[in-house]
């Protein structure tokens, strides 16, 4: 399988769809897939035609996290997992969080280990009703990564975060939604259409304003209230200078639908 085959990439109507594509391994991450996914998110950063990203998986799973076939202890040696986190997972998570364009995730099946935490790092995550989320790390003696120890307690509180991480019990999609880990559960057959429609709607939106909104909400995790008010002032100043703000207000006054350019 060539590098590009491990992640299918397609741009249409401003939406860059990235599909993890190692279905026989439940889209577990090998180095090749890491590089291909990173290239996809780097494109999303650099290409002004990309105004939203839709991340999903091929086959019956979203992602089973790290490909454990590449970590077989029976082959000898002790891997430096800090190195692989630094080289592959952390740059990916930083690319997702720092992208000032909406990232929609459609979890089409099981999301385990890093696969689950990548889904939680996206901006709006939908899941198929049959999907489940597993902090599989505890089963193999590892620590949740891909931002899991940061996002889980923030999203569900310390008690649930610890129970999920320490027991590795699967969490069904309905419960994940009711706990606030994801946005919405969708019938399996409707997932990709609903996620695509959402991504298309976001891609037709005021990209600059949406990107600044993402920045502000993420900054709230570490800002004090006064710092956040100052940030809102600064970002509103920037948004107010955008062509999309002018178009939004003009369209309102002219009683028509706005046509946002993303600038
Ligand atoms: O290493 C580092 O760089 C550090 C970073 C670590 C990040 C991590 O993500 S660590 C966590 C790694 N992931 C796991 O521990 C999950 C392992 N997988 C499972 O526990 C189960 O497969 C699932 C619960 C996800 C799904 O179970 P089920 O019963 O639906 O499917 P299955 O039969 O177990 O899997 C189907 C196939 O996918 C199977 O292959 P086969 O037998 O049909 O040829 C299975 O081996 C393969 N597969 C599933 N997960 C992985 C995998 N192959 C390689 N790596 C996997 N993670």
Name its key features:
Lyase 2-enoyl-coa Hydratase, Chain  A, domain 2; 2 domains; globular; 2-enoyl-CoA Hydratase, Chain A, domain 1; 6-stranded mixed beta sheet
Task: Describe what you observe in this structure.
- This protein has 263 residues and is α/β, with parallel strands linked by helices.
- It has two domains: 3-203, 2-enoyl-CoA Hydratase, Chain A, domain 1 (Alpha-Beta Complex); 207-253, Lyase 2-enoyl-coa Hydratase, Chain  A, domain 2.
- The chain is 47% helix and 16% strand.
- The protein has eleven helices and ten strands.
- The protein has a six-stranded mixed beta sheet with strand order 1-2-3-5-7-10, sandwiched between helices. The chain has a four-stranded mixed beta sheet with strand order 4-6-8-9.
- Strand 2 (15-20), helix 2 and strand 3 (52-57) form a beta-alpha-beta unit.
- The protein is globular and about 70 Å long.
- The two termini are 38 Å apart.
- 40% of the residues are buried.
- The mean pLDDT is 97.
- The structure holds ligand T3D.
- The site of ligand T3D has 24 residues, from helix 3 and strand 6.
- It holds the Pfam family ECH_1.
- This is Enoyl-CoA hydratase.
- Belongs to the enoyl-CoA hydratase/isomerase family.
- GO terms for molecular function: catalytic activity.
- InterPro entries: ClpP/crotonase-like_dom_sf (IPR029045), Enoyl-CoA_hydra/iso (IPR001753), Enoyl-CoA_hydra_C (IPR014748), PaaB1 (IPR011968).
């Amino acid at each position: 399988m060539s590098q590009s085959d491990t992640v299918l990439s397609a741009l249409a109507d401003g939406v860059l769809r990235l599909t993890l594509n190692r279905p026989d391994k439940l889209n577990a991450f090998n180095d090749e897939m890491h590089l291909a996914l990173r290239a996809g998110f780097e494109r999303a950063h650099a290409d002004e035609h990309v105004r939203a990203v839709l991340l999903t998986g091929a086959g019956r799973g979203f992602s089973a996290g790290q490909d454990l076939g590449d970590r077989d202890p029976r082959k000898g040696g002790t891997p430096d997992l800090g190195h692989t986190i630094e080289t592959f997972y952390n740059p990916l998570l930083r690319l997702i969080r720092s992208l000032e364009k909406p990232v929609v995730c459609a979890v089409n099946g099981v999301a385990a280990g890093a696969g689950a935490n990548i889904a939680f790092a996206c901006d709006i995550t939908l899941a198929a009703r049959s999907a489940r989320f597993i902090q599989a790390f505890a089963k193999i003696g590892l620590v949740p990564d891909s931002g899991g120890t940061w996002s889980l307690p923030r999203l569900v509180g310390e008690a649930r975060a610890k129970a999920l991480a320490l027991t590795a019990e699967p969490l069904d999609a309905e419960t994940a939604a009711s706990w606030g880990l994801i946005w919405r559960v969708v019938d399996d057959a409707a997932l990709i259409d609903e996620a695509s429609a959402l991504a298309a709607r976001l891609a037709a939106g005021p990209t600059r304003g949406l990107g600044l909104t993402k920045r502000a909400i993420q900054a709230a995790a570490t800002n004090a209230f006064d710092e956040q008010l100052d940030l809102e002032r600064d970002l509103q100043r920037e948004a107010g200078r955008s062509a999309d703000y002018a178009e939004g207000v003009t369209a309102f006054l002219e009683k028509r639908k706005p046509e946002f350019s993303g600038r």
